[in-house]
Design brief:
alpha+beta; Nucleotidyltransferase, domain 5; seven-stranded mixed sheet; four-stranded mixed sheet; 19 helices; 21 strands; globular
Length: 481
């Protein structure tokens, strides 16, 4: 059996559409088009250009039609938390705010004045972050945002794009969990939290889970693209949910690290893990593609280096990695999750100011800055890994590194050294593969994620990094604390 699927994979800095053929032998994957995802700054706010994303998706679909390829279905995954507000007539009320918009700085305290933080965490199990949809919506309501006065539906970004293709308004489970509005135990929107925003469950689309069909391409989209009534299937709408589905694990004794703009490190659990420890450590319980729970922590990832590379004129990784390798080990360390690094105008200067403020030697060269970022990330991964060991009944024997960041051999090796366990890198296109896997299961090609993971394990090249032990990591972790 062989079937072909279309995946839309949108990250916070870029997007792509992919064509993937699935058979008993494995996966044949091709990127159809790549495109940037730019933040739009206007009047002190940051927005996403969702219409440009939509246009690029249509371009990918046109390529499929021009080739005469028959696709089984379409699946869309994106980053979490952000959303579009729809008016009663179905039109967009405005461009969606970006989670990096500064208006939510300090926002949680205002909502917690209405419902205490402990109760919110006990309901959702979600890590408190300023930009969670709960706080975005509450901030907009508190600041009398005109769109909130007219809103009929709140659609998270993958759901908004599915709506643009099908006309159907849904609320997909995995991306909805990032909002901090879903009850972790019932796997449904929580009425108390929704009502605290002046909304109702009707303010969101029909609740769907990965594998359910959302609808088919509208006649308008069929005419624009040249395709027929192709179904759009709900996948792991949150890109991390799709990525984790593609972890090529052969047993339960693993942690995962989805490495990209963000680093998301965690474990899988059949039930939410919500207790005093997870609340104190600010762990999150997000939905997985088989209604399992991804117990994880968000860590600032390659965003740090990408912003520096942009200032440096985007030099090749091989070039700056060579400079990092030649730099002094553990010269400077930072906390990657410090608020100073959320969205500074100049990331290089932000790192230098942070080091000066905290008594660390200020990095001066590209190599020193790159090495500072890599070593600090590896040290942060170590901290979170040790926390995860206390949260799971399984012995964690390996870390699966997936996503675009897993191509960075230097960071992979230093992560293995810092954690003291093997790091298995791959697949690079984990998010798109997880997206397609859910579509393939919906098409009857497999019964569950476990069987699809085994197919990935045997058919996708993987690289193992064994730890090279050094006491320097033990010394350096005390500095980052």
């Amino acid at each position: 059996m062989k079937k072909t699927f279309f995946a839309v994979d949108l990250g916070a800095t870029s997007g792509r559409t992919l064509l993937t053929t699935v058979s008993d032998e494995g996966f044949e994957q091709e990127v159809l088009n790549r495109f940037p995802n730019h933040l739009i700054q206007m009047r002190e706010h940051f927005y996403w250009d969702i219409f440009e994303l939509y246009r690029n998706i249509l371009e990918g679909l046109k390529i499929v039609a021009n080739r005469g390829v028959e696709i089984e279905s379409i699946g869309i995954d994106t980053w979490g938390c952000d959303f579009v507000l729809l008016a009663r007539d179905g039109s967009f009320l405005r461009l969606p705010y970006s989670y990096r918009d500064p208006q939510t700085e300090g926002a949680p305290k205002y909502f917690f004045a209405k419902i205490p933080q402990k109760r919110v965490y006990n309901i959702t199990g979600i890590q408190v972050m300023n930009f969670n949809s709960l706080f975005q919506l509450d901030t907009m309501r508190r600041k009398y945002d005109s769109a909130m006065e007219l809103v009929d539906k709140v659609l998270f970004i993958p759901d908004a794009l599915s709506y643009m293709l099908t006309g159907e308004k849904v609320c997909e489970y995995t991306v909805a969990t990032t909002s901090q509005l879903v009850n972790a135990k019932t796997r449904k929107l929580d009425t108390e939290l929704v009502m605290a925003l002046g909304l109702t469950e009707r303010s969101f689309g029909k609740f769907v889970y990965p594998g359910e069909t959302i609808g088919t391409l509208t006649k308008e989209i069929q005419q624009i693209t040249g395709l027929g009534p192709v179904p759009v299937v709900a996948v792991g709408g949150h890109d991390t949910a799709s990525a984790v589905a593609a972890v090529p694990a052969t047993n339960t004794g693993f942690a995962y690290l989805s490495s990209g703009t963000w680093s998301l490190m965690g474990i899988e659990s059949p039930q939410p893990v919500i207790n005093d420890m997870t609340e104190r450590l600010n762990f999150t319980n997000e939905g997985g593609v088989e209604r399992n729970i991804r117990v994880l922590k968000n860590i600032c990832g390659m965003w740090l280096l990408e912003r520096c590379r942009l200032k440096w004129g985007n030099p090749p990784y091989a070039e700056i990695n060579a400079e990092a390798a030649a730099s002094e080990p553990f010269r400077s360390v930072i906390n990657p999750d410090a608020p100073e690094f959320v969205n500074p105008e100049d990331m290089e200067e932000a790192i230098k100011r942070y080091c000066h403020k905290h008594g660390e030697p200020v990095p001066q060269t590209r190599g020193q800055i790159t090495r500072c970022i890599y070593e600090s990330l590896a040290l942060r991964y170590r901290q979170v890994y040790y926390m995860l060991r206390d949260l799971t009944p399984y012995r964690l024997e390996v870390l699966h590194m997936i996503g675009g960041g897993c191509q960075n051999t230097m960071l992979n090796q230093w992560t293995a050294n810092a954690l003291g366990i093997p790091v298995i890198a791959g697949p690079v296109e984990a998010t798109a593969l997880g997206n397609v896997m859910v579509q393939a299961i919906a098409a009857g090609m497999a019964k569950d994620i476990k069987s699809m993971r085994m197919l990935i394990h045997k058919s996708i090249p993987l690289t193992t990094y064994n730890p090279q032990f050094s006491e320097n990591w033990d010394v350096a972790v005390e500095r980052i604390k």
